[in-house]
Write a structure and sequence with these properties.
The protein has 374 residues and is α/β, with parallel strands linked by helices. Helix content is 44%, strand content 13%. It has 14 helices and ten strands. The protein has helices spanning 28-38, 56-69, 85-93, 105-112, 127-132, 135-149, 151-173, 180-187, 199-209, 212-216, 219-228, 256-272, 286-295, 355-372, and strands spanning 5-10, 18-19, 22-23, 44-47, 77-83, 113-119, 236-243, 318-324, 336-338, 341-343. The strands form three sheets. A six-stranded parallel beta sheet has the order 4-1-5-6-7-8, sandwiched between helices. It has a two-stranded antiparallel sheet with strand order 2-3. Helix 6 (135-149) packs across helix 7 (151-173) and helix 6 (135-149) packs across helix 9. The radius of gyration is 20 Å and the shape is globular. The two termini are 19 Å apart.
Length: 374
């Protein structure tokens, strides 16, 4: 018998459900399912395959179609957990009176939506989106387009993947085990081919074909989004907020792979710290400000961010929790060891997000779902 409780996990910008054996929500489904069962909730969980960089409307339409295809129209309790841009997809889908296509299914979904959990979501935009709409950002996307849509590009991706896989093998001989390169080689690089039907090229083609979200996530554009998108009265909106300490040289390591990802984090952190002069983040209120400041190891300011989204841009509805970690730590992409294997994480921000924090975060999200399913 199908469960009456459906939970949809919606990935963010550049998001996917799975490529190779890489999962966007790493271990989240298992951890959340156990937490829900411990609270007496038997739910069916879905990781949504979104359109990575498409407009918020198109991503919300994809979410609508997933709910339809998975029997969500017949479920009594619908819950949505959106990470990053995924939170905006959820807000748009649940807006009263929204019409994403010719049906009226949005209203039926809204009537059964009990909770919308918004994790590290840029409700007031992010300066990082302005970078991607600049000449430098467009050049990066142009390169991705060539890699996905041309035979020489795919051969180059295949050759690079093979080279990186060999390096992963050789650095094991030198004693560098459990590195980020080992992780990606095992889960993705060794499986890449030059054939155009490989899922990595599907992902890159999707990025190349539609980058609407890049414009819509700028502070200027999200200002219009917030003027048009309304909360549903009977749905509980809860935000979980993240912040990472400013990068420091103490986080640098000799491991070249950790060093590279840390340098990327330093760059995205610096860009995300630049508040738009004409579109400042709204004041969250005295109580929320005190709670944010209490949990953070550094003074709260407009520049405080998780490496991709400013912390003050993440506050919406009720504040469910504040976590010290980078943007990807909270979806399981943090350094930890599981079942005897190292999972090295992706950004290496130096935030020291831990397994204990990961379990607590998703336990808190399970509590939101459990409380609103009664």
């Amino acid at each position: 018998m199908a469960s009456d409780v459906h939970v949809y996990l919606v990935p963010g910008f550049f998001g996917f459900d799975q490529i190779g054996s890489l999962s966007y929500f790493q271990r989240v489904t298992d951890v959340l399912d156990r937490a829900l069962k411990s609270k007496g909730v038997d739910a069916t969980l879905f990781e949504v395959a979104t359109q990575p960089t498409s407009s918020i409307r198109r991503r919300a339409l994809r979410l609508l179609n997933v709910v339809r295809s998975q029997g969500g129209l017949d479920a009594k309790h619908l819950h949505f957990v959106g990470h990053s841009t995924g939170g905006l997809d959820v807000r748009l889908l649940l807006t009263p009176g929204v019409r994403l296509d010719a049906s009226t299914d949005e209203e039926q979904i809204g009537d059964h939506a009990r909770s919308a959990t918004l994790l590290s979501t840029p409700h007031f935009g992010t300066p990082l989106a302005n970078f991607f709409t600049s000449m430098n950002g467009r050049y990066v996307l142009y390169v991705l387009t060539l890699l996905a849509t041309s035979a020489p590009g795919r051969v180059s991706v295949y050759a690079l993947a093979q080279l990186m896989s060999k390096l992963a093998h050789y650095d094991d001989i030198l004693g560098r085990r459990g590195t980020a390169l080992d992780h990606f080689a095992e889960r993705l690089l060794k499986r890449i081919t030059h054939k155009s039907d490989h899922e990595i090229y599907d992902f890159l083609r999707a990025v190349a074909s539609d980058q609407g979200a890049m414009i819509q996530l700028t502070p200027e554009a999200i200002d219009l989004f917030n003027a048009a998108v309304a909360d549903r009265e009977a749905t509980r909106y809860v935000s979980f907020v993240t912040a990472a300490p400013p990068p420091s040289s103490e986080a640098l390591e000799l491991d070249p792979y950790r060093l590279m990802t840390h340098l990327i984090f330093r760059m995205t952190y610096a860009i995300s710290a630049r508040e738009h002069r004409h579109y400042p983040y709204p004041y969250p209120g005295d109580d929320i400000e005190r709670r944010l400041q209490y949990e953070l190891p550094v003074p709260l300011s407009a520049g405080t961010n998780d490496g991709m989204v400013p912390t003050l841009s993440q506050v919406w509805g009720r504040l469910g929790g504040v976590y010290v970690g980078d943007h990807l730590d909270v979806v399981g992409q943090f350094p930890h060891r599981v079942n005897g294997k190292d999972s090295p994480g992706w950004l290496h921000s130096g935030a020291r997000f831990s397994e204990t924090m990961f379990q607590k975060l998703w336990g808190d999200i399970a509590d939101v779902i459990a409380r609103t399913s009664r």
